[in-house]
Predict the 3D structure of the following.
Amino acid sequence: MPQPTLLELSRAGKRCTRAPAGDVSSRGVTELIPAEHLRADPPRLPEVSEPEIARHYALLARDTFNIEAGFYPLGSCTMKYNPKVNERIAAMPGWALLHPDTPPGQVQGALRLILELERLLAELGGMDAASLQPPAGASGEFCCVRMFRAYHESRGEARRTRVIVPDSAHGTNPASVSRCGYVATSIRSDGGRVDSAELRGALGDDVAGVMLTNPNTLGLFEIDILGIVETVHDAGALLYYDGANMNAIMGYARPGDMGFDAMHFNLHKTFATPHGGGGPGSGPVAVKEHLTPFLPVPRVVERGEGYDWDWSPPKSIGRVHSYFGSFLVAVRAYAYILAHGAEGLQRVSEAAVLNANYMAERLRAVYDLPHAGPFMHECVLSAQSIYRDTGVRALDIAKRLIDYGIHPPTVCFPLIVKEAMMIEPTETESKQTLDHFIEVMQTIAQEARSSPELLHEAPHETPVRRVDEAAAARHPKLTWNA
Amino acid sequence: MNYLPHSESDWAAMLAALGIDSVGELFRDIPAQLRETAMPDLPGPMAEAELLRHLQDLAGRNSSLDELVCFAGGGVYDRFIPSIVLDVISRPEFKTGYTPYQPEASQGILQALFEYQSMVCELTGMPVANASLYDGASALGEAILVAAAERKRPRALVSRALSPNARRVARTYCDAMGIAIAEVPYVAETGQTDMDALRAAMGDDLCGVALQQPNYFGVLENMRLAAEAAHAAGALLVASVEPISLGLLEAPGRYGADIVVGEGQPLGLPPGYGGPLLGIFACRHEMMRRVPGRIVGETVDADGRRAYCLTLQAREQHVRRERATSNICTSESLCALAAAVYLAALGPEGLCEVAAQGVQQAHFLLERLSERGTAPRRFAGAFFNEFVVDVGQPADGVVCRLAEQGYLVGPALGREYPELEDCLLLVATEQRTRADIEGLVAAFET
């Protein structure tokens, strides 16, 4: 049932944290700050005690689905287990309590970690250099497209103002294109993969780049990637790799080897840093040599026996973050890579791919599988036949899964599949968990036929029933005082 | 070390179900040429104990705020983090969940973010707030883009007394979208934005004016004048604020701000070598549908019970794609949660206490420095808890020297303000004691 808000718990005079008494002979604030700057009244924040705060958040936590507590096969998000050792490391004062303006000579450990992680990511991606500065995948996308623009402009090709994006792409891709002042051109997929004829038709001397992810959002490897890359480069455009799906190919393929010019990674996906309910993430970028002059500044460089920040790169696109990116997220990812080593990461991809294919194979009898495998780390099922026969939609199936303690897969994406359910189990789920999920999905398919209203009205077992999201948008109430 | 939960027999059974002999067959769509060069050259693997030793060793090469007494500022501050904050954000339920797209399964985090939004609105005096952006710098960039879209005009004014890092990020965002940013100088004597220059730069192509309060030099600006000037020209006022100062300082909504942004790190986040941070964004009702990022709204469920969900999603990239208000997807939810717990833990009295102590400690520090005459204050304007001193020599060297003695000051201003090469920032928060202050004053003299 709904929890009271902090405001509803608030009672005048309740306190939690008090500062120790100040120890300087104090002139009061009113003596030190001119009156015209001061608030007339204190801000109306809740007044609660520590036990009440602790209980409040304990109850909210109980009503928050999380990967620790249940299967979370959210396609494209790579909801894998977040290792505890990485939390222990990130909490070390020698990482957490560093001020970003500490003289470089006294943060040599941090500078070394940043440089090493950049090199590890470049190596994993088959690229020449990297930057940890973008604080999320979308920021990394923007950064790369912005670098494309800087590159083309430096070569007198400012006429290139379009970027091609497949219709199966994640929404951030075209949004990031727009953020660079470019126009996103969508191309249709053919049997789930990039339609080469469409691509060739869309290319021209006004195209700056093509954004792809491989495997794509359907979990299919672009078999013709080498041909695609050649076609795009021949047209004078650059290729950007959306690294959201890196979990599929580690040790099996590198975007740089495919021919991509730039890419981003999602540390909060492939590298197991916690999602946090929507961040903090981290979206480092890696590029080939010809784009390195445009990387964000500052950059870590080796200087003498140690490391330093270099502010000089004159062609840099500038800053995309106040400081150096989500550093404490990077620390976790660094630890994750070292824990696994190359063979360990390859095994991660193998297990992720095995899990996804096993699941697709066992579910194909019950749901539509619009594309033939082999799949990589995710697959897209469709509830189209079920919908046609029973009126039950992918969304209803998703809501019913919650009753079984399983987080729904991504539904209604990618846009090119009707009643899509994008399922990414990740490698940290056991066969036992997958078998249970498969059983539940089979049961739900039966429920669709025998009692569709059960699904239309799902979920039934949650603290709230189906939420009226339409009303929330029509009559926005965005604060407790609205 | 790995985290794979497959036994050998599980693995074999799954291969058998797929009718294949080895997992490599599932990768058959990958051209052989790519497979040949695919194994990266990486260190590891390491067992957990080894990993901890290595990371501890590297951490040991950093001087943290456990070793350095912090008087440094410029955007990231040393504030006390209540234990309850650390406890709540370490809960795996909050830490390991994803963006709450399925509200029925995520009421907890949705309500927590709704409460965060509500408290941001209380602090800022604005009716609408989102559930976080990356940092105060990107929030500034997004705010100017909102102003440009709202006013349909292509130029903005940003004070040079506003954080250099924020101005740089805002420029990266705005240049790419063809929005011109012109900088307004500060008055050399006071450190405040030059209001005459501001008024002279007005025009009917202006969408917004951005000032920081307190500004980057710690000086208090006349925000009402700035609001009047902006509005007279048909432009919006963007106020970039430090959230703890809002315990004492007037809420931007009351002095005419249209959009409020800020860096939320002081609200319960460690300095973290600059990240992750927390971008605060709040605005007036009229701009609600242009707001970037996630917004949580209150609604009802099928039985009429109060419920929360992500709302106004038509703004966002997963719905509007190339026409979204921003490309942002993952933001800083867990950091917003930390801020919410922090504000709940302090409450109005606690926030005022903490803000006031910073003011008192900082003014005392200045008094003691002035008595010694070693590092005179550079600007004369009234300040909050941060101020600029002139050390009579390139300040970078002084920052290093003091750090070696265990005092972190700065940043030195010369890189971003060549005319202030001998200057650096000093800040005092409630974390600094009289003994710390006396120690710093003495250290300036050695």
